[in-house]
Amino acid sequence: MPVSRSELLRRLRRHLPPDAVVEDRESQRPFECDALTLYRELPLLVVLPETVDQVQTILRECHALGVPVVARGSGTGLCAGSMPHPEGVLLGLSRLDRILEIDPLARTARVQPGVSNLAISGAAAAHGLHYAPDPSSQIACSIGGNVAENSGGVHCLKYGLTVHNLLSLELLTVEGERLTVGTQGLESPGYDLLALLTGSEGLLGIVVEATVRLLPCPETAQVVMAGFGSVSAAGDAVGAVIAAGIIPAGLEMMDQLAIQAAEDFAAAGYPRDAAALLLCEVDGTREEVAEHSERVAALFRELGATSVAVSRDEAERALLWKGRKSAFPAVGRLAPDYYCMDGTIPRGQVSRVLGEISRLSDEYGLAVANVFHAGDGNLHPLILYDASDPEQIHKAEAFGARILELSVAVGGCITGEHGVGLEKLQQMPSQFTEAELLQLEEIKHAFDPHLTLNPGKGVPILRRCQEYRALPARHRHE
Amino acid sequence: MSDQGDALVEAVVSARQEGRGLYVTAGGSKRNLAGRECNAAPLDVSGHTGIVDYHPGELVLTARAGTPLAELEKILEQHGQALPFEPPGFDGKATIGGTLACNLSGPARPWAGSVRDLVLGVQLINGRGELLNFGGQVMKNVAGYDVSRLQAGALGTLGILTRISLKVLPRPEQSLSLAYDLALPEALVTMNRRAGEPAPLSGACWVAGRLYLRLSGSPGAVAHSAGRWGGERLEDDAAVWASLRELTHPFFDGPEPLWRFSVNPTAPMPGDWGPMLVDWCGAQRWLRGAQDPARLQAVAAQAGGHVCLFRGGDRSGEVRQPADPVSRRLQLRLKQAFDPDGILNPGRLYSWL
Predict the structure, then answer these.
(1) A-chain residue closest to B109, CA distance
(2) Is the pLDDT at B92 greater than 50, yes or no?
(3) Are A242 and B60 in contact (CB under 8 A)?
(4) Are strands A89-92 and A69-72 parallel, antiparallel or unpaired?
(5) Which of A236, A260, A460, B292 is most exposed, with minimal Cβ within 10 Å?
(6) Do A285 and B199 touch (CB under 8 A)?
(7) Contacts of residue A195 in chain B, CB cutoff 8 Å?
C-alpha cells in the first residue's frame, strides 16, 4: 500500500533542513526528466541533502516505509534512468559537490558524487593530471551519474570507461548501511563489487563518494581530419589505423548530414561534400605524436581520402573538435527534436549498419544523422522528429528500437554508454535470454530485495511481474 | 580444440541434483594459489578449448575457457598484438579461464589494466546449470549489470567460465628499462613521481635494493623519456619483467608463505619483517615468511588495502582479509544469486562462501 505523502514528509522534515525538501509541484518540475525529455514524471517528493548523514537518514526512512528512491545527479542522462517514480522520492545528490582530496603522488581524487566530471580535471590540472573519461556532457554531468552509467566519451579506446578509472566508492545500501567498495590498491579482496556497481544505474546502491584515478596530461595532441567519398572507405581507414598498431586517443566518424550540420554550426572547416568524415586524435610525447600523426595522415591518403588536414596548433585542434562536440545541438537545429540512439557494433559492420539505418530512415520517413565513436564501435544515430506530433513520436521510437535490434543482430549491444534506464527496457530481451534476465534480476534482489531502488529501470523484472511499465504517453503531465 | 559445453552443463545439473560440490580445474597451475583449498570433486574443463573468434582489426579475441594462454599469445603475436595485462603463463599450463577467475596480471597492470579491465564478455554456467552470456565482443556495453568483470577474482564461485572475450592491443614497438640503486622509501616516491609524468611508463618495481622502470611505446617517446630519466640502461630487460610476471624471480623460490599486499602505491610500510618485493608502481607488494596474519592485515588496512596469503601456509583457514559485515552479507547474497546450492568451488574464496 502506498505510503501517505504527509507521513513521508513528516519523517523527512525531522532530519532535513527546510530547503532540502521540495514538495510543491511547480518547484519539482525541473526534476521531472533527465536529458531524454520524452519521458517525464513527478515524484512524491524531491529531496536535496547536503551531507552523507542526511542521505543515510533518507534511505533509512524510505526503507522503513517501503518508499521507492530514485537517485539523480545533474540530470544529463539520456535513458530516462533518473526519471522520478510517482510514488517515490527523487534523491538529488547535486549538493554533495565537494572535491575532498587530490593526492598528486598517488594520482587520485576523492570526490563527492555531485562534483562535475570536468571539475575533477580542473582541480587536478595544477599537478599535470586529469580524469580521463570525458562524456560530451562533462561540463555538467556528475561523477555519481558517471559511475551509475559507466560513462565513456571520445577517449575511451585508449583510456577506458569510468569502470577503468575508479579505485573505490563509498556506498549506501538500500537499508542505509555504509560500505566501502574497492580499495586504494588495484585489487578487491573478494567479489569485485566495484565492477558490478559501475553502470548499475542506481539499482543496487547509492554512491556518496568516489575515489578516481588521475592520469598524467599528455605532453601534446594532434588531430588528423580526413574526408571520404563513402562510409565504407572511412570504415576501412579506421581498421587500417588499428592494424598499423596505433591506438588513437580519439577516433570519431560523422556522416554527411552530421558533417553539414556541424559545419553550419561551428565552421570548423569540415569538407561539406564528404560522405564521411574521420577525426583521429593522437596524443603522447612530442616525438610520438609527430610520428603517429604523420603515419595516420599517410594511411588516410593511401586509402583514398578526398581531403586530409592535420591540426598545426592547439587552436586548430580545438576548432576541429568543436564541430564534433557540437554535433548533437547542431543536428538539433535541423528539426524540432532529435532522438539519440546508442548501440555498439563491431567496427567492421559500420558500413552495413549505416546502410540499413538509411533504408529505415526512408521507411519511417524520418531523417537521421550519424555520429560514431569509430574507435570503439559506439554508434549514435540522431533521429530527427517533431515531438508535437504524436505519430512522429511513435515512429521515432519504433525506428530507434529497430536500430537497437539491428545492433544486436550484427554482434553488438543495445547501449554502449547511455544506459538502459526506462528507455531501452523493452529491448533488453533482444540482447538477453529469459534465463539471463532472471540472473540479472537475482543480482538486483541480492542488493535490493524489495525492489525500491530505481524500480522499473535497467533490468526488466520478470519473476514477480512488478515491473513498472511506464509508457511516455501515460506519464506526461502537461 | 573442442566444445564440451553441453557435457559441462550436464555435470553441473547432476551435481546439483545430488547435492555435490564441484572444484573447477583445468591446467592446475593455480591449485595452490590465490584461494583456499577446495575439497570438492574436481571438474576438469581443460578439454574445453579453442579460439572461437579473432578479428585483429576489432582488437577482440574470443576463446573457450580451457584454452592455454600460450595458444592465445601465439596467434596474437602473428598479428603484432598481445594480451596487454601480461598474465603469468605458468609453464604453458595457465588457461584463460583460470586467469580471469584468479584475476592474475603482470607488471603492466597499473597502465594496461588487469584481465578484469580487458574482459568484454563471458559465457558461464551458473549453479543452476544454466548456460548464460553476458557482455559481448564490443568495447562499450552497458546493458545489464557487468557480470563479466564480476567473474574476475571470484575464483569460479559464481559460475563455471566457458567462453571469454577480451580486448587485445598492439604490441609496443619498443621497450627499454632503467635501473637505479635506491632504498624502498625513496624508490616508492620516485616510481610514483615518474608515473605522474607524461611518459610511456609500463613497469615500475623494486627488487633487492634496485628500482626498475620500463618504458614501452614508440621509439621516439621511449628514447626521449629514457634520456630525461637517466639511470642504468639494461641490455636484456625482458628477463626482469618475465621473472615478476611468472613468479620465477629467486625472491619467489622456496616453500615459505607468500603474502600479497594490495595497497595505496605511495603508502609507507614497515621494512623489518622479511624479504619484500614491490611491483605495480607500489600497489602490489610481496612478502615472504611465516607472519602473524592479524598484524599484516592491520598494516594493509592502514595502507588503504588488504593482504592475501597468496601461496603456501595454511590454506584450510581464511587466506583473505576478513570482509566487514555489510560486505559479507552482500557477497553471500550474490553467491546465492548465482549458485543457490553452493556447489561451485565451495569455500575457495572464503570459508563462508
Answers:
(1) A186
(2) yes
(3) no
(4) parallel
(5) B292
(6) yes
(7) 116, 146, 149-150, 152
